[in-house]
Amino acid sequence: QLSGKWFLVGMASHCSYLAEHSHQLEATTVTMTVLDGQSLAISTFRKLDRMCWEIRQHYLPTQAPGRFLLKGEGECSKVDVVVGEADPSNFIILYYQKGRSISLKLYGRTSQVSDAVVDKFEQRVRAVGLSEDVTYYFSTYGGWHTVLRETRV
């Protein structure tokens, strides 16, 4: 049910990179493919320095339904991924936890989701102790997701 194309609509995280570069956030398109009926292959396309980059990840299944493990290099780089809520035809909210750090991502089948879905996302963000100060949205502009930039004259 999760297979197919998704758009990153919002993200909540204490990630310092996001805080420092939020004015440069651009489109992120993800293609999810269910492999062997259990694991997920994630292909992320991102525009960076006027070039498109593809990042491939493999989310391994765990014993619990809706939970995956993303392994990196070394024992300390394991990330637990949990499907928080999903309407596979509309949106999915994923939790990412590495150690004590947690972040949430909101994906939509289209680049814009309803206010009701945004409200669900924001409720989950608050429930894990994150705030609007660390919540970022990718709005649509000219076919790409961007954050509105403040212009000073």
UniProtKB/TrEMBL annotation:
It comes from the Eukaryota. SUPFAM superfamilies: Lipocalins. One of its GO terms (cellular component) is membrane attack complex. GO terms for biological process: complement activation. Residues 3-138 form the Lipocalin/cytosolic fatty-acid binding domain. GO terms for molecular function: complement binding. InterPro entries: C8G, Calycin, Lipocln_cytosolic_FA-bd_dom. This is CO8G protein. It comes from Dicaeum eximium. The gene is C8g.
